[in-house]
Write a structure and sequence with these properties.
The complex is a heterodimer. By secondary structure, chain A is an alpha+beta fold. Chain A is built from four helices and four strands, in the order βααααβββ. A two-stranded antiparallel sheet of chain A has the order 1-4. In chain A, strands 2-3 form a two-stranded antiparallel sheet. Chain A is globular, with a radius of gyration of 18 Å. By secondary structure, chain B is an alpha+beta fold. Chain B has a five-stranded mixed β-sheet. In chain B, a hairpin with a 3-residue loop joins strand 3 and strand 4. The radius of gyration of chain B is 14 Å and the shape is globular. Classes of the chains: A alpha+beta, B alpha+beta. At the A-B interface, helix 1, helix 3 and strand 4 of A face strand 1, helix 1, helix 2 and strand 5 of B. Strand 4 of chain A pairs parallel with strand 1 of chain B.
Chain lengths: ~130, ~140
Amino acid sequence: MTSFRLGIKPSKKAAGRFISRARRKLQQAMIRSEAQGVKQADVAREIGVHRSVVNRELRGEANITLGRFAELAHAMGGEAQIDICFPEDEAGRNAPVSSSAHIASLSVGSQVRSTGAMYVTRTKAQIDA
Amino acid sequence: MEDRRVYMLPRAVKWAEEILPTLESVWQIEEAPIAQLDAMLHDFCSGEALAHVEDFRCLRPIGSGIWELKTADLRVFGWFYRPNIFVWSAAFFADAIKDGDMYHGFVSQAVRDREALDLTPPKFVPGERPNDVVSAWY
């Protein structure tokens, strides 16, 4: 079985994964807020944009600045937090992380979590071999 | 978190090697499509909770067992051989798929791919609900 890795610069990989984590935090915070009666339209009104703008940002179809991340978190009733994790700080972690990978993490509320696991894709003609 | 895997058919490998690096975002966001796909595959394989509809959804006709994994600019077509095990048949630019009404063609192609593979039955997870195919979602 052969593994496959996308030909992407490590720095771009780190950025893409970081943005994805940040966006997931916002999506999950939005779901939590909606359960408490706060709608996307309310969040948009709070930060002074149209609801479609917030929708695109949460769907990944628009860039999110650090400032907007904090604004959205605030409008959802949370507080944005930020952290940078170094591999040597995480004793006992055994996920394969490249030696230069320092994991940045954004979160909403008090839950800060990072993941260093790399995806593995495989080329395989017979899936169940 | 649950371990997940993605298997790529040769067509998918060729596309990822030759076409994907040349693509630019139609949304003009900072993540190029290749970075979007890397993040999506990373999140999938590391067992992250996935956003139903935004990240993945079952395609019509319901019952075909064909799903798409999604990024802002890309659509990845395939099926779940078992829960958390996705077989990637093909991928394409989301805008082109929607503009050209190409969903039916990609679904049919994935079904043909699946039929052509000598897999131990059942060849795919028949369910259409997120719980049927992934271990964590929101």
